[in-house]
Amino acid sequence: MVLTKEDQILIKNLFLLKGYGAKRLIKAFPTKNWKMTTLNDFLKRLRDTGSAERQAGSDRPRTARTDKNINAVNELVLSQEDTPQSHHTTRQIARETGIHQSSVFRIIRQDLRLKCVKKRRAQTLTTANCVSRLTRARQSLRKFSQSAGNFIFFSDERIFAIGAPVKRQNDRIYAAEGVKKRDIPAKRLLRTQPTFSKSLMVSVAVLKLGCTELIFMGAWRESGRRILP
Fold it and tell me: What is the pTM of this model?
């Protein structure tokens, strides 16, 4: 049982001013539901230290979140400046240092004050790609005037499948015991779908002055042909 701050102040005043013990406190305040062992421990701390506060170092000493382990986790959880993408996951850190994975997580969040950010996929640009893009950009600047460059736009589109994905591992049916699979009607057993699924195309263009609105085009395939209404 944990005593509240108000209960600690009340017990301390009654103990110091009137000499109340554990039994008398329980008898005087039956609605508090205080435990005898809790009061005895609290009063013993008052006699020994004269204060109701916990003494420094009286708690259970840390065994996992020590300075040594915090420094070890700090070296592994962050990438080095000269070697990007060299950081470790919490599972890898736990395996390498011998620290429990939950303790590794608490060190990262509470001691190192780090937060987890999800990565995003992006295209890899080589040195040749960067040089080529810079050359094309300079050629475009020489070819067009500054006023004309405001109206040069770049467009791109992406096709999104409309049909919901199906996980075949969970796509099952139940049949009575003794019924063989070949005796189940095809309408129940088969999951049919068209050869070409429905899809939606989204297009947008950007230029120096801004960007266009999203353009949605319903696109689906029938008999190998693409139709845009």
Answer: 0.41
